């Protein structure tokens, strides 16, 4: 979800990758798999084990480099950040993923309604 802040963790607390204050080049493609697991963990303020757990749940499927290393996109980082925020509010990972999916569905439906003629 663009504009959704990450939970208050690590040095990027309250920031979204690419937002003012973070030393990231602007990306033209939010789905470009650019961030290593270490970079993703640093941006989100979580250990690699947390990212592996989120991946194992099926919430994200990062791309793999030729050497097999995970590569996360900005969109995936935003999604994981939203999941972490929901989990901080007391939801399980499965429940957080379901809520995030439903939020995305509602957003898509609202866009469709806004684009309808008349």
Descriptive labels:
118 residues, mainly alpha, Multidrug-efflux Transporter Regulator, Chain: A, Domain 2, three-stranded antiparallel β-sheet, 4 helices, 47% helix, 6% strand
Topology:
Blueprint: E1 35-36, H1 37-44, H2 48-56, E2 63-64, E3 70-72, H3 74-88, H4 93-115
Antiparallel strand pairs: 1-3, 2-3
Task: Write up this protein.
By secondary structure, the chain is mostly helical. The protein has a single domain (1-118), classed as Multidrug-efflux Transporter Regulator, Chain: A, Domain 2 (Orthogonal Bundle), CATH 1.10.1660.10. Helices cover 47% and strands 6% of the residues. The protein contains four helices and three strands. It has helices spanning 37-44, 48-56, 74-88, 93-115; strands spanning 35-36, 63-64, 70-72. Strands 1-3-2 form a three-stranded antiparallel beta sheet. Helix 3 (74-88) packs across helix 4 (93-115). The radius of gyration is 15 Å and the shape is globular. The relative contact order is 0.17. The model is unreliable at 1-8 and 10-23 (pLDDT under 50).
Strand order in space, largest sheet: 1-3-2
- Quick one: how many beta strands? 3
Share in β-strands = 5-15%
What structural category do the secondary elements indicate?
Answer: mainly alpha
At the first level of CATH, the class is Mainly Alpha
Q: What separation lies between the terminal Cα atoms?
A: 28 Å
Q: Which CATH-level-2 architecture? A: Orthogonal Bundle
Write down the overall mean pLDDT. 83
- What's the tally of helices? 4
Shape: globular
Order of helices and strands: EHHEEHH
